[in-house]
């Protein structure tokens, strides 16, 4: 139920904002707007305002539209004036109208990021590498525990989220991605990371596929806990426990829970040197069973707070970063550097929306901003039937000084419709394959 609700809210918000941009631009140029619809198909509700616009919510929440008064749709009503008709407007005005929808998607994303920066700021884990998986691309590249990632592909990173965002920009690249690190001795080095394994399966999270894992760094230590008795210090990076390499925080916590009261030999990295310790997870009751707990919290957390003014810059940076990720992904899809089966449709969007809503409102808002950017960029592609196609035709008309032939526009519209429907059907097919495979 949450998945369905999250999907509906997502589509309603980003589509309504997109169409609102078209609507306001039309109204600004004196165009009569006949219908403002969110969704397609049977109408669920309709309200008509005093200027004659029907505000509609329809049954199929997979898009929306704004329908202006247009002589190409048939004869004009008796009470209509030529100034209210859309196709007779100057080309530059029509270009602005078509561009207003995607622009409003970017504005929505910017407002969401600004709100999040002011209220929650930015928070993530410092990109310090743990033990690379054996024979993984990270191991081949020479990554070592304690490597602090500084940049990926020449772009600076502050958190693991930044790392994954930078890696997306290189999906499908034939050459390894240069990753600059500061190793445990404080020396800066460059690791050449081959991401071809992830490019072949981009639906997976990049870090496990590439063999990279965030370091298990000790944060806050509880008073009188087993960690204090073990000699653990804040900032220690746990490398091994009970003779086994530690692959990540979850696996390490599970090992401790399975070892109540046991003495576990361990190796930690402290100030660039390895130290041997003995961990003493204390037995505690958890859900009617005894588990081991050391009494520590994760460390290495990076936080940044913003006031309303500085949040503007941070929101703009995040918008530009995410737009770059989306554009790079779309470009690689069309150039064949990304497989077409990575394209997701409404089922994928619904699942991701539901998962983000389960995590919390902040996660859901981040997804909403990302999808709004995606919708804006897709609509700017120079494909007939999309806003970008009509913007292109409007610019050509301004250069030519006269309208394009109706026959050409009709043919282009048919080609564009075929392309758009083909990609929609492919996305839905991919969704079905994922569900039943």
TrEMBL record:
Q: Where found in the cell? A: Membrane
Q: Which organism is it from?
A: Alcanivorax xiamenensis
Superkingdom of the source?
Answer: Bacteria
Q: How does it sit in the membrane?
A: Multi-pass membrane protein
Q: What is its EC number?
A: 3.4.24.-
Q: Which InterPro entries does the record associate with it?
A: PDZ, PDZ_sf, Pept_M50_Zn, Peptidase_M50
Q: Tell me the enzyme class.
A: hydrolase
GO terms for MF: metallopeptidase activity
Write out the similarity annotation. Answer: Belongs to the peptidase M50B family.
For this protein, the record's SUPFAM superfamilies field holds: PDZ domain-like (SSF50156)
- Is-annotated flag, keyword Membrane? yes
Task: Please report the name of this protein according to its UniProt entry.
Answer: Zinc metalloprotease
User: Which part of the chain is the PDZ domain?
Assistant: 113-185, 208-272
- Extract the Pfam families matched here: Peptidase_M50
The transmembrane residues are 95-116, 359-381, 408-429
List cofactor names only: Zn(2+)
- Any idea which UniProt keywords this protein has? Hydrolase, Membrane, Metal-binding, Metalloprotease, Protease, Transmembrane, Transmembrane helix, Zinc
Coiled-coil segments: none
